[in-house]
Amino acid sequence: MANKTLALYERVRRWPAGHWLFTRAICFKAPYFGSISPLIEILEPGRCVARLRRHRGITNHIGSVHAIAMCNLAELVGGMMTEVSLPDSMRWIPKGMTVEYVKKAMGTIRGVATPAIPIVAASDGYELPVDVVLTDDAGDVVFRATISMWMSPRPAR
């Protein structure tokens, strides 16, 4: 069975405003992601790229992008990458995240998620580390995270 999320992305990304429509659908399913107004730019097995633009609603007291907004972007790209990469027999849930704030985040922030190890089908659960890097307009790293995704077999239906 083809991954339904990836199939939807592949279908709508060619439409005018397709990336925006797909991102809105994801934010409808998981509403908290909508709080940062993200845009998913690339979604493929093993990689997700999304961006957010700095706006007042996601800034902190010094005017830079708030730490939790960056964590939100990291979880979005990490989760979407995992969702479209996992075998049909597996499911996932975030288990934890370690973060490093490297530099003040200003402007448009782009997040890229990739798996640290290959994603495989397994008869037992396992921890999948997902690496996420956020960069600013200049391409400078502003944030790094490793998200621990718990991968487990889907229950029999």
Description:
- By secondary structure, the protein is of the alpha+beta class.
- The chain has a single domain (4-153), classed as Thiol Ester Dehydrase, Chain A, CATH 3.10.129.
- Helix content is 25%, strand content 36%.
- The chain is built from three helices and six strands.
- A six-stranded antiparallel β-sheet has the order 1-2-4-5-6-3.
- A hairpin with a 5-residue loop joins strand 5 (126-135) and strand 6 (141-153).
- The longest helix has 19 residues, at 67-85.
- The radius of gyration is 16 Å and the shape is globular.
Overview features:
single chain; 3 helices; Thiol Ester Dehydrase, Chain A; globular; 25% helix
